[in-house]
Write a structure and sequence with these properties.
The chain is mainly alpha-helical and 241 residues long. The chain has twelve helices and no strands. The longest helix is centred in the N-terminal third of the chain and has 23 residues.
Length: 241
């Protein structure tokens, strides 16, 4: 039995590598077929990549429903695996992706909004795998009281965990909370530090982060800006070690 399992694992890994080669050579149809084969056999990396392709319409027709079902299959077949699994990052990401879909549901499909279930999935990814995106999204749900009773204290805890892993969106939300003193004791320099770090990592379509940073900079005193700058420098030095 062990020999057969090992053989299947090798075959699926080969199929995943074949996907990579075909993709590099521009043979998109062949790449997708190889990926679908590996995913159908339970190869987590292949299934996760296929889910992302359906989500983004990359090489296949975009389908949120197919993406959802692909991610769900990962969470069903690989649920018992923990953070030490070599596929941990794909498994935890699948839980988060499922949660993202369940927050609003998928229009014109059987996938209805279920924020409570989304919170459960985020919590599983955040607590079992230490997934930074799961921690961020769980923090946001608790902060907004969506899918669970509003709990700013716990929200800040999860956001802090994600922010400490350089999740820039978590840094932005936590930084705003700390700078304004909204729901937490005010700590303006630390809040401005997180907002600065978030702004440096934000993409062009994340204007909300730049807006929060600029507003905080306008309101901050010279002393607060100076302390925040030193905190940013220390953060970067520590991260480089």
């Amino acid at each position: 039995m062990r020999v057969r399992v090992a053989f299947v694992a090798v075959v699926l890994a080969d199929a995943f590598r074949a996907y990579g080669r075909a993709l590099r050579d521009g043979r998109t149809d062949e790449a997708v077929s190889a990926l679908q084969y590996a995913a159908s056999g339970g190869h987590a990396a292949s299934a996760w990549r296929l889910g992302r392709m359906y989500m983004e319409g990359e090489g296949v027709a975009r389908s949120d429903l197919k993406a959802f079902e692909t991610f769900r299959q990962i969470t069903i077949t690989r649920r018992e695996e923990g953070p030490n699994s070599p596929d941990a990052r794909f498994i935890s990401s699948a839980f988060v992706a499922m949660g993202n879909y369940l927050v609003e549901g998928i229009p014109n499909t059987y996938v209805r909004p279920d924020p409570g279930k989304a919170v459960e999935l985020y919590f599983y990814a955040a607590s079992t795998f230490g997934d930074a995106d799961g921690q961020f999204r769980l923090g946001r749900m608790l902060l907004e009281g969506k899918g669970a009773p509003r709990d700013p204290r716990q929200a800040a805890r999860w956001l802090q965990l994600a922010a400490s892993k350089s999740h820039h969106q978590a840094q932005a939300v936590l930084g705003h909370m700390l700078f304004t003193g909204r729901d937490v004791p005010r700590a303006a320099p630390r809040g401005l530090m997180f907002l600065t770090l978030a702004k440096e990592s934000a993409s062009d379509n994340e204007a909300w982060i730049s807006e929060m940073y600029e507003e905080a900079m306008r309101q901050a005193s010279d002393d607060e800006r100076g302390v925040a700058l030193r905190m940013v420098e220390n953060w970067i030095k520590t991260a480089r070690r």
